[in-house]
Design a protein that fits this description.
The protein is α/β, with parallel strands linked by helices. It has 13 helices and 13 strands. The longest helix has 19 residues.
Length: 338
């Protein structure tokens, strides 16, 4: 097995701004595992908030290159466990490796990954499309240029209610609100009472990640469901979020890949929590991996590839205002576009 690393600067259609970050370029590392017959692909994007750079991801993979290339795995789950000691120090790189191994394994079986798991993927769950923080006029322009049935609106400004009211004039689509830790408890409750009448479905991570006392208050008093994002990283956080959030947004890179994400989904459901899987501005490689989990989810945020100026791989695609998930082997990515 050969490990090949591909580095990209993914140019965004618009500057992407949230409460704690802003960027025009998304740096991405595509990991390819080639066994001579098939190639498995995985992706991890750099994150300033979580402190993972492309250089750090490459470094940990190079340190473990010999073990990765010589490993004789029987299943992706076995590989994840046996590599976890070395790779868990960098969950983003660990995720790219885990996705690539899952992709390669499913391709060797000639089926899509979701079918290999015994899931019937009907692809009828609609992803939201993200509108990043900007002036009200520019946010309205972004919405109008991309008609879609569900939007995630990034907030954390002094004009949040005005933004939602203005955008609501333009569409009857579902709204989901993501404050990315930008609000306080009182502000969240006030906004939730206003937004419930404006077609907002839920509020994602309104408070800073470690404000558990505040989250308990919101869990008990908010008229809108509260979904965890920054407060949930790995498998142990599902139990921690129970009774503080109505649902969780699981990210493959934060938890270390598809293998732990599936366990997290199962555990969250056992607690009666809503489950969402979100993206971190990946190309179609990362989004195609997320798409394999669709049968297991209540909500999905897999719009990363839609925010890019150009694509670097095949896989999921936009057709007739719908995200189309290929039913081909693995995650559905056969090659990178040069």
């Amino acid at each position: 097995m050969k490990l090949i690393l591909h580095e990209y600067d993914l140019k965004l259609k618009h500057r992407f701004s949230i409460a704690h970050d802003s960027r025009d370029i998304q740096k991405s590392l595509i990991l390819e595992l080639r066994d001579g017959q098939f190639s498995g692909f995985g992706e991890a994007t750099a994150s300033k908030y979580y402190g993972y750079s492309i250089e750090e991801m490459r470094a940990i993979l190079e340190v473990n290159r010999e073990q990765i290339e010589s490993y004789q795995y029987q299943s992706p789950e076995e590989f994840w466990v046996d590599m976890s000691t070395e790779m868990s120090v960098n969950s983003f790189a660990q995720s790219a490796l885990d996705v690539a191994v899952n992709d390669l394994y499913a391709k060797s079986k000639g089926v899509s990954l979701s079918k290999l798991w015994g899931e019937e993927n009907s692809h009828n769950l609609v992803s939201n499309y993200t509108i990043g923080i900007d002036t009200i006029e520019k946010m309205a322009q972004k919405l109008e240029e991309f008609p879609w049935p569900s939007y995630k609106i990034k907030l954390g400004t002094k004009e949040d209610i005005a933004i939602i009211k203005e955008l609501r004039k333009l569409t009857d689509a579902k709204f989901r609100v993501d404050a990315n830790c930008g609000w306080g408890v009182k502000e969240t409750l006030i906004n939730a009472r206003e937004m419930i009448g404006l077609g907002v479905e839920f509020i994602e991570q309104p408070l800073v990640a470690d404000d558990w006392l505040g989250m308990k208050t919101l869990y008990e008093k908010s008229p809108l469901p509260i979904i965890a994002d920054e407060s949930i990283v790995g498998e142990g956080d599902i139990e921690r979020c129970y009774g503080f959030f109505h649902g969780v947004n699981i990210k493959l890179m934060k938890c270390g890949g598809l293998t732990p994400a599936r366990r997290m989904i199962s555990k969250a459901k056992s607690y009666g929590m809503k489950v969402m899987v979100g993206c971190m501005t990946e190309s179609s490689v990362g989004i195609s991996a997320i798409a394999q989990l669709l049968p297991l989810l209540d909500y999905v945020d897999m719009d990363g590839f839609l925010l890019l100026e150009s694509e670097i791989a095949d896989g999921v695609r936009l057709a007739n205002n719908t995200i189309v998930v290929p039913d081909s082997a693995g995650i559905g990515v056969s090659s990178l576009i040069s």
